[in-house]
Amino acid sequence: MTERKRRKPGETRDKLMEAALTLVGKGRHFASLGIREVTRQAGVVPTSFYRHFRNMDDLGLQLVDELGLVLRRMMRDARANVLQAEKLMAESVAIFIRHVQDNRSFFVFMAQGLAGESRAVQEGIRSELRFFASELANDLRRLRLVDHLNDADLDLTCDLVVRTVAFSLTDLISVSADDDYQIDQIRQRTTRYLQLIFVGAAHWQTGD
Amino acid sequence: MTERKRRKPGETRDKLMEAALTLVGKGRHFASLGIREVTRQAGVVPTSFYRHFRNMDDLGLQLVDELGLVLRRMMRDARANVLQAEKLMAESVAIFIRHVQDNRSFFVFMAQGLAGESRAVQEGIRSELRFFASELANDLRRLRLVDHLNDADLDLTCDLVVRTVAFSLTDLISVSADDDYQIDQIRQRTTRYLQLIFVGAAHWQTGD
DNA sequence: CCTCCATGTGTACAGTTGTTCACTTGATGT
DNA sequence: ACATCAAGTGAACAACTGTACACATGGAGG
Fold it and tell me: Is residue B2 part of a domain?
């Protein structure tokens, strides 16, 4: 039994997580989902749920872990494709929006979870955002675009950027997924928010 | 029947709305509340609910209306007490945080509703925030602190300010209501976000 | 080949849910 | 003084909920 991983790609477990995400994507709030509802959506008998999760909060926590992977993929995508410094923000926002469209349910879950019912899920998402902001700070340091900022002020700026982009989620989920015009409006507006922030960062003097 | 207002201060209706807020304040998510649960908390028989609301979404909408009043009170408070221009942001954030502490449940409800289950509630809250941002723009115009910005750019700035402050709600609700140290940290950080934004606004050139 | 055990199934039960209906009550406008 | 009607009550219902238990199964390790 040296290798304790009997499971093939844990079909049912994945089906249950996908089912929860599907329901969230259909407009339901995660906090209002029940075990029976999720198992029904997954095409599985209710008792199976307990083979993989203790309760809905537990499932939520494991969704947060997968959300982390989604965010990391997005970061890698951005690092690989944001080439010209002068279009940095426009391109980053475009990549963000593309990933939101490709993983809508995940990001809706994230937006819900920030003010959700489970403390643990809340904290998990907040910690993902903190990590994202710190990675962003590293990248900016490496690109040497913000040399006049000390570490604390750079962190402040990156936090604000991440928050601003995260708040745009609430805009994105309030328009239908195929309303290209509105989505483009949100993209432009978010880009300008970031530009405003970076103009601020460029003229920021550490002592207030 | 020229005056159709028989109701004395609609006791039960208010009790129901307060009960929902109380449950939200205790950590429950609005989307997971049921009619029976709310009536139980209000000390009222379940059928009474239907005398005042069609369903939980309806109650949510009426809560949004009251939330509007809370926000307007806060605005009035800010206008009356923010005296010195150079402390404008620090004082405004302080007033915001004080009102959040005095109406915790309302603001938790607002944070939840932004990514909530009911489209109508979502839109209601978003519209309150838009209104708030436009009032803020008016005030800033009157104070003539941002004369170099055209209307569109001033709106952009105020939107960003409101979003930033709104996002701080998720920080505030994640710390216990009497953890003065953490709350003060959030206050300072939010203030610096706003300062960063206004430094950006001060150096903003309309054509990008 | 046999045994084990993680995974999945079917049945069952008590508690809760939303909503209905017929009933009481008490303040109101005339 | 009286009729009216919004507001509140209590009992009832079928549908659904979370969870427990005993059982089936099939692939892995010996």
Answer: no
